[in-house]
Automatic annotation (TrEMBL):
Protein name: Glutamine--fructose-6-phosphate aminotransferase [isomerizing]
Locations listed in the record: Cytoplasm
Major enzyme class: transferase
Record's keyword terms, sorted: Aminotransferase, Cytoplasm, Glutamine amidotransferase, Repeat, Transferase
Keyword Repeat tagged: yes
Function field: Catalyzes the first step in hexosamine metabolism, converting fructose-6P into glucosamine-6P using glutamine as a nitrogen source.
Species in which this protein is naturally found: Rugamonas brunnea
Amino acid sequence: GAAELGPYRHYMQKEIFEQPRVIGDTLEGVTGIMPELFGDGAYKVFKQIDRVLVLACGTSYYAGLTAKYWIESVAKIPVNVEIASEYRYRDSVPHPNTLVVTISQSGETADTLAALKHARSLGMEHTLTVCNVATSAMVRECKLAYITRAGVEVGVASTKAFTTQLAALFLLTLTLAQVNGRLTDEEEAAHLKAMRHLPVAISSVLALEPLIIAWAEDFARKENALFLGRGMHYPIALEGALKLKEISYIHAEAYPAGELKHGPLALVTEEMPVVTIAPNDTLIEKLKSNMQEVRARGGQLYVFADVDSRITPGEGVHVIRMPEHYGLLSPILHVVSLQLLAYHSALARGTDVDKPRNLAKSVTVE
Ligand code: G6P
């Protein structure tokens, strides 16, 4: 009801703004990296595994894709991420030393539960879930669990569940790295410090809302949009496009920016807004040349640029300055701005933001 919404117009907006708090809640009590944070016996399991298989659907699948970048780069363990509804029906090559990780807000998604059972039937017994509902079937079915503390998420389009999943998956990354002998005490301390500072960093992204509202007015008049990201921000581009299409019904697609020339560039005209995630990382110069490819075809760039990535606004180049580059946790900051862009574009189009047509909050049948 209205009382619960407080100053917000929709649950989605309220949930976006709850992110600093619920990320803090999810990481509460994490004073150091300890396998037991994932349940009794976690150390023994983490010692035995030498690969990770992530199973999930929708937004949770994109959290898994982001985690692949983290785990492979920090813990040096190979990761496969599979869409649950595909994995359960394909022939795959199982390996007993696999940590099977399901990611689910509800813990009741039929495809993800079935994929988990399928993995187990193939002899993979080491199971862990990152889940937002402690009493769910998923938590009962998995040996290990990390319960995110996003609280009840009402908006069908997932927001705070996603960023709390990312926080939990980063913690899993550090834990696997530690067990694998890949994390020095100094690195652990630095990562923990960055995690503790996340609520403040997210708040500074939320403060960009007025600038994003101005962009959303342009987007509301479009029927298509492209989202570009590279590296660990590619899954964030996918999530940004998903958010926009789910609630505003604008057709949106995401590409890793280096893939532009292999197809989507054919769609770029003056009519095409191209949302670009521009973190100040090692790929920034390559990204700048991808941006030029778009400008050369008249495409309109809407760039979320870390303040230190030195991208200046100009003809056809709109820039919103994000905080300084936030290292490995940067995807968590960048997705928040894309959530706001989707929300305000939908609001400007007058759609039913919290209950988009044809979609359900949790899909408990196949
Ligand atoms: C539905 C929801 C999505 C969610 C997906 C997976 O499609 O609308 O927001 O990402 O299910 O749900 P889960 O509860 O397993 O994370």
